[in-house]
Amino acid sequence: MSSSADPLAPLGALPGVADAVDSVRKSVDRIYGHRVMRRRSSEVSAEAALRGARASAALEGADWPLEELRRRTDFGGEGEPRTVGAALRTTAEAGQLLDVWGQSPLRVLARLHLVAAGGTGDDGAVGRPRLAGEPVSGPALGKEPPDADEVAARLDALARIVVDGSEAPALVLAAVVHGELATLRPFVSFNGPVARAAERIVLVGSGLDPKSICPAEVGQAELGRETYERALAGYASGTPEGMADWIGHCGKALELGVRETTAVCEALQRGAA
Q1: Are 182 and 141 a contacting pair, CB within 8 Å?
Q2: Which residues form the Fido domain (predicted)?
Q3: What's the predicted TM-score (pTM) here?
């Protein structure tokens, strides 16, 4: 794809974006070079997935301690258990959908929503974009979600970018996928977990984080829900400043996820985990 036909190409030139991309790349390279990764990468990946899911649920208001996730199995009930279950399921499912994403991202999003919903609620609204007049549950993000027609058009545009490919750095594409889904809120529920799982798919599929050991969700939660929602509002504004701030925010979150995994690797090395 030529840069002139690539709608994401201008984003790489926004102030601060190149520095964020470079900083993330160096951070990810360092954790992949950790000696623990040579023999115990599957353990690191599993722990990163669990911590990422815990953080994704926390951003939805279900801020459970990590040990509670390890202990509990009742993730089908209403309220916080259902929220935590959705985050766990979408995070796990993301790794199974890499081959489909590049050819049919809308199928992947439908599958992620189906998995998030866990067979609960109105089955007619699960696994498809919402229709006109259907309400949206979850964090309000300070504004009304776009109408169903705009959602359909922008989902199609996002799918074209994914299928056609982009020369934009992985961080930029991941930030756009996450930002579009989180602000469009295309489904009647669980849009946050779906958006963050889709970002995970982009980071893994792009080769930036092929073993899925860098949980950006952890960084988003550490930066705080208010900061997350404020950065998303910047993305939703569509201004160059808002877009640059959101991409930089996603870069910081990813680096904090790397820091979390570095601590996991150090604990495994000491035999403390």
Answers
A1: yes
A2: 104-249
A3: 0.94
CB 199 within 8 A of CB 121: no
Nearest to 123 by CA among 189, 75, 39: 189
Write down the pLDDT at residue 29.
97
Backbone phi, then psi, for 162, in 5-degree steps?
-65, -45
Which of 141, 270, 111, 125 shows the shortest CA–CA distance to 201? 111
Write the CA distances from 131 to 114, 126, 148, 178, 191, integer angstroms. 16, 11, 6, 21, 15
Nearest to 85 by CA among 181, 172, 193: 193
Q: How far is CA 85 from the centre of its chain?
A: 16
Find, among 160, 11, 28, 181, the residue nearest to 90 by Cα: 181
Residue tagged 């815990």 (tokens): 54
The total number of structural domains in the chain stands at 1
Category of 77 on φ-ψ map: left (φ > 0), alpha (ψ -120 to 50) or beta: beta
Q: Residue 32's domain spans which residues?
A: 3-270
What CATH number corresponds to the domain at position 249?
Answer: 1.10.3290.10
Q: Please give the mean pLDDT across all residues of the chain.
A: 93
The tokens for 199 are: 């970002």
What does the alpha-carbon distance between residue 234 and residue 31 come to, in Å, rounded to a whole number? 30
